[in-house]
TrEMBL record:
SUPFAM superfamilies: CNF1/YfiH-like putative cysteine hydrolases. PANTHER family: PURINE NUCLEOSIDE PHOSPHORYLASE (PTHR30616:SF3), UNCHARACTERIZED PROTEIN YFIH (PTHR30616). Keywords: Metal-binding, Transferase, Zinc. This is Purine nucleoside phosphorylase.
Amino acid sequence: MITSSLLNGIPGIRHGFGTALALVPEVLQPLWTLRPDKKQVHGTEAVHITTPQQAVGHADAFFTSTPGIPVSVITADCVPLLLARRDGGMVAAVHAGWRGLYDGIIGATLAQLAQAGTPAASLVAAIGPTICANCYEVSEELAGQFASHYAALPREVVLPAHRHLDLRALAAHELRTAGVQDLEHVGGCTFCARDGAGHHIYRSYRRGDRNSQMHAGLYITPKGDT
């Protein structure tokens, strides 16, 4: 199971990023049936989760202050982003592919968290296993759109090589712009990362894995749990 040292330091939360061998992180499995009923659509909808098995429809970000309910996202090259308030009182999971990043899902989620009493400055963030820029070649048109959209950034940050988009760097930029300063990149590249035996560690849509169910998530521990 892949974890973040930053999130491991937050009291009263449990988290993990799935792998090809353990699609649902072990730490989430005991509460897995309580997760929201959702369908990710590469949009910018963020939903406040307050009840177990909450039906949320189409959404790509989920946050809760209710103990015992896991919030999670499915990825297979996109950015799985996990957030937690430093006191452990709020957690969030965000699915940010290129569409979500371009349309502002991270900023939209952080704005809702702020409205719910959790400003960005109080959060730590873990950007999980994501396709790296070396492996993520996009069309000339899409590369140009991102260069224009992020014109305030040096082009080599957005596109380290011709037509190669850096999703991780853009997620980090969105987080810092919104006020999150403590963040960590964990897990490596979903496309090219291999274990010591040469096996791919993650599912990757670009590599041909379709309908992947590789999850990343976290929850606030119920009172009395250790």
